[in-house]
Amino acid sequence: MKIMISKKKIGKIIMLTVLSCVAISCKVNQEETKPLAKLEVAPNGHYFQTEDGKPFFWLGDTGWLTFGKLSREEMKTYFQDRKAKGYNVVQVMVLHSLAVKNVYDDMALTNEDVSKPLVTEGNNFENPEEYDYWDHVDYALDVAQENGIYLAMVPVWGTNVAKGDKVNKEQATQYAKFLADRYKNRTNVIWLNGGDTHGNEFKDIWNAIGNTLKTNNPDQLVTFHPFGRTDSSDDYHKADWLDFNMFQSGHKRYDQDTVKTAFKEDNYKFVHRDWDLKPTKPTLDGEPSYEGIPHGLHDTLQPKWKDQDLRRYAYWSVFAGGAGFTYGNNAVMQMYHKGEKKGAYGNKAIWSDELHAPGASQMQYVKKLILEHNYFDRIPDQSIVVNQGEKYDYLAATRGNDYALIYTYNGKTMTLNMGKIKGEKVKASWFDPKNGEEKSIGEFKNEGVLDFNPPGEKQDGNDWVLVLKSK
Known about the structure:
Protein name: Glycoside hydrolase family 140 protein
Oligomer: single chain
Low-confidence stretches: 1-30
Number of strands: 22
GO molecular function: hydrolase activity
Strand order of the largest sheet: 10-9-8-5-4-14
Structural class: alpha/beta
CATH class of the largest domain: Alpha Beta
Keywords: Hydrolase, Signal
Helix content: 25-40%
Strand content: 15-25%
InterPro entries: Apiosidase-like_cat_dom, Collagen-bd_put, GH
Distance between the termini: 62 Å
Shape: globular
Number of domains: 2
């Protein structure tokens, strides 16, 4: 669908004039960048791989407002940084609202109608009459591809549908077809249907979007990003368009969650449940508590979640059998700029500064640890742990045929059933999730019950992974 317009706002012309001197240097030519390998579900059904059979561990970041709030140069800064820190997926909204526009004053839609994307002829950045919102999305995909990153894109954020009269099934289907046609040749596109919304509401619309995207582009993975403390498997696990599950473990503490049936902070319980579902599909935590966001979100006087909390969510869910993990930072997810009005959830930090928050750098180590061992034979196995514990005392265990990994969030002594992996002896070491360093502690008989005492005093945030390898 092409909708022609003759002019853009004067403000955009001024901005493009200023930026014209750097336009050539920041232009990305898709033909000059090798497309990323297509992603697919691995034969075991629990993990991802590339089309050539190589392991793909999803390490995501939430850059929700990238398309609307970052300039082309800022996109380069953002994606280059995330590549350097080991991220390979960025979750982003295509339409945050129906009135969304980008930093160049380009509106995404005509009359806030999702079935009418506002598209101009051409894509020349130096010509304001050609460059539009969708060209800016294309550019983001190019830069992401250049940096080895897949964009997990939410077509339309759930609140826009939840209003009830803004998006109907017919409009949603037309819009999804537009997206499917425009991005059919992109190998670095993943679709996150929904967007922080209840999966049991407006199912006709979410199914229409999911079916349209999957039918037209069967090689692009599709899931559903649900409301806090819920999971795509609650409503769409058996949907033909859903390739993998995603849950939002949420931003509340144990004591803030009053729903008796909720898993609260125990995000690993989502994975354990999804692991046993049929048909078998991968699952992962797509939105845990963000670093720098208040406990419970809305009361800015509450303490803020820290890097240690993100590590806990990452290792708990991955060791439970998760296919990856998505990190989040309060400033980065909303791309908060200096001089903006009040940030959401009490944020005052600048997005570019928070790229270097402690947790943002630490997430690469869980990816590194998992990929160092046989990827496809890894399973969750809590039978290894004698003293599993509850809440922050919980010990999470995962293993392959010749290795086992056990995580403690607070330095609790581990009492373990040996003999769960092959070999008469095992080599043991402590892996530090804060810096990725590993220190050997010797060899042990692979039989009976043994205690392993992590370094340091027992306290929240003194987290370690015990690594056992067959000798």
